[in-house]
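User: Fold this; tokens only.

Assistant: Input:
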Amino acid sequence: MNPLARRKLGLLFSLGLILILIMLFPRTLVWLEVAARELRYVWWLIAILAVGVWMIFYFRKKHD
């Protein structure tokens, strides 16, 4: 399997998992909607996610 196909398969799997979790836990979707409206209360969550994304890209680099 080539890297592009693997990436697309991973993306589809992630989206499917998110949809299944939303269907299993509908209150989570309500919480996300409220959080999106009230960003001033969950700014720390956005900061944690941003640091996580940064760390993923930082550690994926090949350091020589």
